[in-house]
Specification:
By secondary structure, this protein is of the alpha/beta class. Helix content is 38%, strand content 19%. It is built from seven helices and seven strands; from the N terminus they run βαβαβαβαββαβαα. The chain has helices at 25-44, 59-67, 81-94, 112-120, 158-168, 179-182, 188-197, and strands at residues 3-9, 49-56, 71-74, 100-102, 127-132, 139-145, 172-175. A seven-stranded mixed β-sheet has the order 3-2-1-4-6-5-7, with helices on both faces. β2, α2 (59-67) and β3 (71-74) form a beta-alpha-beta unit. The longest helix is centred in the N-terminal third of the chain and has 20 residues, at 25-44. The chain is globular, with a radius of gyration of 16 Å.
């Protein structure tokens, strides 16, 4: 199936603030940039991903996205992830995409094979494919086909809510649990874990 990938990105200098005790602001900015570029390069390797759409309020992040061939949506007003994702999905729907994959840019170990695993489970729409975080609470990737059949409800403990929304919508629910997809870089302990396991990007 052909779909659009939507990548939400916080301002590069402000993202990963909970790593402030571990990394300086410049180091966190560099880390956020490396994570974004790694995400864009990984998505570009998949022919099933027709377009990648980066939504952010950061002009630098949007410029990086365009340099990697991605489309961009400038976030404005009060920052709110679910609203920004809804807006990006409307843009994708204008192009009659068959589905959308929301992939935050803080998955340092994500690989082409991980995303392919999500795509392989989305062959019979309507379907919602979810990759939970390693704690089984958050949502680290969310594939929805057709686009817009459920609302976004990212935030603390979003995994269970997205599962419930999929069931209420009458969509088939697929859950993909992979160690690399489950590890999002958020807390200092995540950073230490990534440093011990990581072999795909350079911090």
């Amino acid at each position: 199936m052909t779909l659009w990938a939507i990548v939400p990105v916080k301002p590069l200098r402000r993202g990963k603030s909970r790593l402030a005790g571990t990394l300086s602001e410049d180091e966190r900015t560099q880390l956020n940039r490396a994570l974004l570029e790694h995400t864009l390069e990984t998505l570009s390797e998949l022919k099933e991903v027709g377009e990648t759409l980066v939504v952010s309020r950061d002009p630098l992040a949007l410029n990086i996205a365009r340099n990697h061939g991605a489309r961009t949506v400038q976030e404005d007003g009060q920052p709110h992830l679910n609203t920004a994702l809804k807006r990006a999905t409307v843009v994708a729907q204008l192009y009659a995409t068959r589905g959308v994959l929301v992939l935050p840019a803080d998955l340092p170990l994500v690989t082409r094979e991980d995303i392919q695993a999500l795509l392989d489970r989305a062959t019979k729409p309507p379907v919602v494919v979810i990759a939970p975080d390693r704690h089984g609470k958050g949502t680290n990737a969310l594939l929805i086909a057709p686009a817009g059949i459920i609302e976004y409800d990212f935030g603390e403990n979003s995994f269970q809510r997205h599962c419930e929304l999929a069931k209420k919508a009458g969509a088939r629910l697929e859950i993909v649990e992979l160690p690399s997809l489950g590890l999002d870089l958020d807390m200092p302990e995540d950073f230490e874990l990534v440093k011990n396991l990581e072999s795909t990007i350079t911090f």
